[in-house]
Amino acid sequence: MRELSDRTATNLKKVLEVALTLPGNYHRFLQAGLIDSNSNIKQLVTDWQTAFTNLQPIDKQTVRQNPGLFLATADDLVYRGMTSGTSGDFFTYFAGNEWNQARLLARQRALSWWGIDEQVPIINLASRLQPLRVNDISLIGNITADWLQSLKELLQIQPAVIRGYPSRLSEVAAALVGHSIPAVLGVICTGEVLFDFQKQLLESIFQTSVINEYGCQETGISGLSCPECGRLHLDVDRCFYEIIDGELVTTDLFNYTMPLIRYKCGDRIQLDFDACLCGRSGFTAQILGRIQEQIKTQQGWKYPGEICLPKFPGILNYQIVKQNQVDVDIWLQLEPQQVLDLSPLQLWLENLFGEVRGRVIVDSSDLSQLENTQSCSDLEWIEWVTKKSWREWLELGLLPAGSAREIALLLKSLIQPTVMVNSGISPIAQQAIARLLQPSPCRESPVELMAVRVLLLACSFLADRPTRQNIYHRAQQRLAEMNCGEYSAMVDLLIPSLGFDSNTAISIWENTNLPDSGKLDVFNIQHLLAAFNLAASTAKRENPNIAIAWKPILSILIGDLNFWASRFHIQILASWWELVNGKALASSIHRQTTGDSFLDAWLTWRQAILGDGASATTALSQLQATATLPTEIARVELEQGYAKLLWQEPLNPVEWLEKIHKNAGLISANLPDRDIDPIPWIPLLWKLAPLWLAGGESELAYQCLIAAAPPDMRASGFERLAREMNYKQSTICDRSNIPLP
Ligand SMILES: [Zn+2]
Fold first, then answer.
1. β-bridge pairing 221-225 and 232-234
2. Mean per-residue pLDDT over the chain, rounded
3. pTM for the full model?
4. 3-class SS at 658?
5. How far apart are CA 222 and CA 212, in angstroms?
């Protein structure tokens, strides 16, 4: 083993001490002699550094079989991530606050080499990469004329660094030939091997430096190329690197939540321990590719990073896919107006693969064409968004042909953003809101009503409070001018109160003619789901006790809505407002009973436990007495759990496992049933997971944490879109090497 620095030795010892207590490591540690088999106390032997070199590495498949056996704590979970890998080959890992701080610090440090500070936005392009820092943005979707326009608009608003997979960035660059492009402050390539021809293309189109980034979150690996020499420096503070039998084996030095010791991440990397001329300490690396990505060439098996992909005259960008022993597909993006001579490419292919049949596919996608959309009438579209599934609407790409078109486009950009920013909404959606705020006298009234409803919904996406209030009041005024008393529109008018400050919200409740009863339409439900994000942050600010006890409060709100959607009364919305604000609304709102005895009892119960709790016993007996349906009886048990969380009463892990098993469908193998919605149980699962872990039920604890993923409507929409279009791809790959399924 290399000589360890004092700092690395201290950090490594600390993480080993956590790891040795975990059932997933015990035998491995014992075999290596890291722990003393004769001692009753599990502790590291004195010469642990020597024993460590005997420790058998583990791989992703081993962890994936029983991930719970590697879970050290179920508290302080700050980060939840998914390992990379093909389908069925990944697992969810967790990390805590120290890990997250170390990660952000390492990134900040590396970016500063290039003069990229926190003020400079990083725009992630056409990938699954999400905005990480406050000013960061992600632009996803197919590379169309509209998409390129969005990119230019974003760069015009503020010069930025762009970041993405090199193959996608090269596609974007090739599509931008001949365009004038606002200033780009740097191009960060990540996630795939960066080839020289791509680097040259990116440099020439964006007129800026190309930075190579490498990271693997579950291992703690992170690195950036240096400006002076372009060599990839790995951050040695966060991670301990070893090469064992030619393979990279890592130990994340800061993950005490789910420590992975001597872990094979599946990437092929060459480490270079010679000092870099730039003077930075530590070693540099060259990424060769993933273990499964080997390519059979005339010179033997090679990793992509070991093959030189040159630039060919007339060709901007290309991709090589070897389909089988003889057929090679070559996808090309060409320089404009070129008479193409393919012979240099042909010669190169022959040298690489020997005699093969090349099939050339020239990308001639006409970027002036819009994405696939279907037209419908304004009224048909209104029917979709108020009565039918929004998912289907988005999948069909249905857009109204009339004056409702701009309303539909705004709604789409809010709920399925292709531009994602860390706070608020994209500058492009803001411009669409500004256009919709201009009253249009010739709009037919159902279209005008939808315009107002979409503006009210937009309030839940606007981070800036004065802007939000201004838009709200203008929408409110337009609704008043229409003299509209439609139930669903009146509900929309009250929903934004969940995100307003108390005074504004109370005046909304007092000055709105409260609707008696009616049914929520599909738009209302989507509006509520969108508004809950803002309501959750209101709770963190206005009612921190409840936000801590019922964490994440979003899951309580969504669970309540799922339960009450079909028997909704406006009092439920009022009670949510009181929940997030920790204040009572005027009693007149509650005076009338709803006529639904279980709902009335539930409203009284929630008021009782959220108040001083004095009348909780009476309220509970009333709730129990009115519960008749099985779902209502389950609800009562859930509500008692909520009360225990609020009053910080101890929960018996065995008793509650049974309750959750019975009510939320934990199946007999003690794992949550994926068909049953665990959302309302999430706060209890969070609380119980550490108790189960302490009781030795590590797999159960792990599965609970998986089931307790806090819902995030916006991120999941983004994730769906990104998965469909902006996946990683190999610039060169050998499909004849991949076994058929
Ligand atoms: Zn360097």
1. antiparallel
2. 89
3. 0.84
4. helix
5. 11
